[in-house]
Write a structure and sequence with these properties.
This protein has helices at 12-21, 60-71, 85-89, 109-141, 153-164, 167-173, 184-195, 213-229, 241-244, 268-279, and strands at residues 4-8, 43-45, 49-53, 74-75, 93-96, 105-107, 200-205, 232-237, 250-253, 260-262. With 284 residues, the chain is of the alpha/beta class. The strands form two sheets. The protein has a seven-stranded mixed beta sheet with strand order 4-6-7-8-3-9-10, with helices on both faces.
């Protein structure tokens, strides 16, 4: 499915004309101006899966965030815009193949990190509560409590429950299961499968972060299936060889000047992996 058909960024001439209009010159940065234009990156024509590839500083995350802000899709983490962000967005254009669904969103590394951090905080709270319940069980089981008024009813129930149950059952019934069912990588993968729904445009910023190679392959298959069977469109910034190998993905190489569309097997990052394993093939 294609919701977003194409997107254009300001070219070098447009940026030059903008700078001529600025009265003040004391700014330290004109970001996001002069990031994509230096690579001659002016237009993206989208497929169901479109990938922005490049090294650090290539502008792939910048491009992804600009698209997210221009399309006004949902984001969880706060995004700090620069002084010139709106000026830049006003010079971008886009065309829709069909309306973007409301459940569309951008997912960044910060979103995934915050999700895992929240799980950790919840688990720490649960662990502390479990220790408290162990103590409550022993105090209630071996206490000589006697009900003296209606106000003591809850304490009586606790005492009777402790005497009629094992410690593990008492704690289990009074405490939610620990949500620490996953490793960090498994939690990150679960986050993506939870956020990606049917019929949506999804922008993923380096989703391979926190994912093992196996989980990256699982995510690759999940994205392929979501695009093929569930009417999803993906725009992804990545340098993961597993994600770059997705079937039918259109890849823009932002390390080239001007930016070029390439096959995944032509990318420097992938070629480096290939060469390394080829040289060490005899050790497998």
């Amino acid at each position: 499915m294609i919701y977003l058909k194409f997107f254009t960024f300001p070219n070098a001439d447009m940026e030059f004309n903008f700078f001529r209009e600025i009265k003040r010159t004391c700014y330290d940065s004109f970001y996001p101006f002069q990031v994509l234009s230096k690579h001659g990156f002016e237009r993206i024509d989208f497929e169901p899966i479109t990938i922005l590839y490049g090294g650090n500083g290539s502008g792939k995350s910048t491009a992804l965030n600009v698209i997210a802000e221009k399309t006004k899709i949902h984001r969880d983490s706060i995004f700090n815009k620069s002084n010139f962000y709106m000026d830049y967005l006003n010079r971008c254009t886009l065309d829709f193949n069909r309306p973007i669904p409301e459940n569309s969103r951008i997912v960044t590394s910060d979103d995934v990190f915050d999700y895992m951090l929240n799980l950790r905080n919840i688990n720490e709270g649960i662990d502390q509560r479990r220790e408290d319940l162990f103590k409550e069980y022993l105090d209630a089981k071996y206490s000589k409590f006697q009900m003296k008024s209606l106000a003591d009813y809850e304490e009586l129930k606790k005492s009777n429950a402790a005497k009629s149950k094992t410690q593990s059952r008492f704690v289990r019934e009074n405490l939610m299961d620990n949500v620490r069912g996953y490793s960090n990588g498994e939690s990150a993968f679960h986050y993506f499968t939870e956020k990606v729904e049917e019929n949506g445009l999804y922008l993923l910023d380096e989703p391979e972060n926190s994912l093992s190679p196996k989980r990256q392959i699982d995510l690759m298959k999940f994205i392929e299936d979501s695009a093929r069977f569930f009417a999803c469109q993906f725009i992804i910034s990545t340098h993961s060889p597993f994600l770059l190998a997705m079937d039918g993905a259109k890849i823009y190489d932002l390390d080239e000047n001007p930016v070029q569309v390439k096959k995944w097997t032509q990318l420097d990052n992938v070629r480096t992996y290939y060469q390394f394993f080829k040289e060490n093939e005899g050790q497998f």
